[in-house]
What we know:
Helix content is 20%, strand content 36%. It is α+β, with helices and mostly antiparallel strands.
Amino acid sequence: MKKIIALILSLFLVSGCSGITTADKLKLETYQSMYTDIFNATLFKTSSNFFSIGTSLTFLSEANYRYDVVIDAPKVAMYDVEILLIQDNGSLVFSQTMMPSVGIFENKTYYMVPYQVNPSANFEKGFALNGISTSAPVHLKMVVSWKDALNKQYKEYFDFTLS
């Protein structure tokens, strides 16, 4: 059922975006594909053998909490890094804001390689994704996608409940 709903919502979103460029359509399709992948995933983790991942939830005010997810300290060379984080099973179409992401909408390709940090060449030490929630606990699902030096694709799915 979730697959059907996600597909229908994706079709509505694509059909409503007829004034965008081909490059923007590809970015949107990547976003939608990763979004759907998260909902179709069955094996979720809370840690990785390929990089470090940390989470936190900070109380801001009576009705606001800030969540942070930090991905850094790569243990392998990671090329073409793309990350999508979904808060509280947010709706792809009806969300007021885009979900936090890395490497999808930017006009650059990101890399995380052990002991190589050069932001001007897109070699990053790590990434921080964050957002605001109006209630706790906050349920987060995430996909981290990358390629190795031989162009083999990797994807890991994560599930966190922050309270």
